[in-house]
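TICKET: design request
STATUS: open
ATTACHED STRUCTURE:
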């Protein structure tokens, strides 16, 4: 069972918890690379995994420190490229992994965190033409400016607008012309 803590735990406390046979890992989302390094260093002798989570741009640095993997948002939108980053790293192609990191990081990884999760990822998945489902209350649509930023971040994004909120869920595929077709 996975229990969310929703509070930053110190590296010393995580190291102590890592010794418990029922605790096998942590999704490290502090964003503090020093703390993450300390956690990995202090748990190296345990059967314990440290996963990147909370900011996908931290994936490559955490892997480089000895992290086990990632709990990712970005892979929902760009699975092949995100898996390529991980596989290149695991194969020892650090330059290739770094290239994939920079290909994904500046535009996409940052854009997926410009609004409350899961709003941007659902919007991006919909822009890719995949089923994303409606947002549930209290979540609502992205602003037009945020949507435009998200659309610019990936060449694979098509012109699809997805919204769900107090007015109910709706999906519209924007045509390249001025007409709109409801799907």
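STATUS: resolved
RESOLUTION: sequence designed for all positions
ATTACHED SEQUENCE:
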């Amino acid at each position: 069972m996975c229990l969310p803590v929703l509070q930053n735990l110190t590296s010393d406390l995580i190291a102590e918890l890592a010794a418990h046979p029922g605790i096998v890992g942590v999704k490290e989302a502090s964003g503090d690379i020093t703390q993450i390094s300390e956690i990995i260093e202090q748990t190296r002798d345990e059967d314990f995994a440290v996963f990147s989570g909370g900011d996908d741009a931290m994936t490559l640095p955490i892997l480089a420190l000895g992290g086990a993997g990632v709990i990712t948002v970005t892979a929902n939108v760009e699975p092949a490229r995100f898996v390529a980053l991980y596989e290149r790293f695991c194969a020892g192609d650090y330059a290739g992994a770094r290239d994939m990191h920079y290909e994904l990081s500046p535009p996409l990884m940052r854009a997926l965190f410009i609004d409350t999760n899961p709003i941007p990822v659902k919007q991006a998945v919909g822009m890719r033409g995949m089923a994303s489902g409606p947002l549930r209350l209290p979540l609502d649509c992205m602003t037009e400016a945020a949507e435009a930023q998200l659309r610019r971040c990936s060449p694979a994004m098509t012109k699809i607008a997805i919204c769900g909120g107090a007015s109910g869920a709706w999906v519209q595929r924007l045509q390249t012309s001025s007409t709109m077709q409801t799907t």
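CLOSING REMARK: The radius of gyration is 19 Å. The domain at 11-111 is CATH 3.20.20.70 (TIM Barrel).
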